Amino acid sequence: VPLYHILFETVLVLLVIRLVFMKSYNISSNSKLSKKEEEELIKEWAPEPLVAPDKGKFRSEPRLITGKSGPIVQIDGIKHYNLTSLNFINFLNEKKLVEAAIEGVRQYGVGSCGPRGFYGTMDVHNNLEKRIAEFLGREEAVLYSFLYATASSAIPSYSKRGDIIFYDEAVSFANQRGIISSRSQRRSFKHNDMEDFERLLKLQAKFDQENPKLAKITRRFVVVEGLYINTGNILPLPKLIELKYKYKFRILLDESYSFGVLGKSGKGIADHFNMPPEDIDLMSASLEHSVASSGGFCCGDSFVRLSGLGYCFSASSPPLFAKTALTAFDCMEAKPELFTELQTKSALFRNEIAKIKGLNVGGDKTSPIVHLYLNEPTSSREADEAKLETIVQKLLDDHKIIVSLAKYLDHDELHLPTPSIRLAVTIGFTENEIKQVARAVKAVAKEVCSK
Known about the structure:
The chain is an alpha/beta fold. Helices cover about 45% and strands about 15% of the residues. The protein contains 16 helices and 15 strands. The longest helix is centred in the first third of the chain and has 19 residues, at about 5-20. It is globular. The model has no long low-confidence stretch (mean pLDDT about 90).
């Protein structure tokens, strides 16, 4: 027997003997504290806060809107211009939609009280899914009752462990959660940079050539957005489609902010570029913004309906919302000029603030989502956010204009966006109101940034 074996076993035996005969620790044998010592310890003890201290990012007493929301709102009885609403085509107060909602309550009640697979499906849900598929020229559509759960459930329904997801680093938080939940390998590329994306595709193609067996069972997806809420930029879809057929991957497209906004008929990014929707494998979109209802939907030519967690385990959308959305699609089809008007007013606002001092204007020309960035940022994110928040508050207090500092979950974002002020243009504003708001934004930015 080797000597080191004997030494090792001897050490183990000694340790066991020591543990067997070691005196056990008895808490009751310890001397008790005196009354005075107990009082001193209690006096010195300071509990840790359950919530991190407020750093000024949130108002403890938020201002509340009274009455209907829209481009003009009442706060404390005073008229304010609202540039935070994503009610792009002003359907929120559309008379036909209000009447449809009332009719839906009378016909179906106020809720469904069950998931789609467990007596939560009503005829109006199926009717809406059929209507969406027809409107977009796709084979099938599936409703989700909660917008956040739409993309975050749809992505892991397709991409699984072992697959690869390429994604734009500016995708929204819901898409990020879906990517993480899929447990797939993930590769990010620079925002809207198709050259950087192709670089990753070439590296993957090289790896696949070296590992042909693995390549046969590995599926490839790309997660992108038609209109990015975090930047206001529009996806370069033609180049993406070109890369799709060259490198063979599937497109998971989130149109939460481009559906009902882009294109001649509001059908989204494919309509905007006049491209066939069949080039997109899966599209998810919102019913909460332009449609002025609730929830979201996915549509495509073939997919597994029951694999989305948000579909299986969430109560279905209240039927009154489905009824409202059906009417909204009728209105969108009957009034395609709404989308031209939105794009025109978005371009007008951008033109009016193009030479704003101290800030850079982010986003595409026809995008109604506008981001304002400091053109001379510091090395401190908190300092930059504080300066932008000063602009936000001065616009609210001095000009009765509501805008918002773009909020993010700083420690949870895969790629934390640059601090910015986010505004949204809607068709509810007249051209004179748009010019008035732009002048106010320019004046306040000049005042704050010149200090």
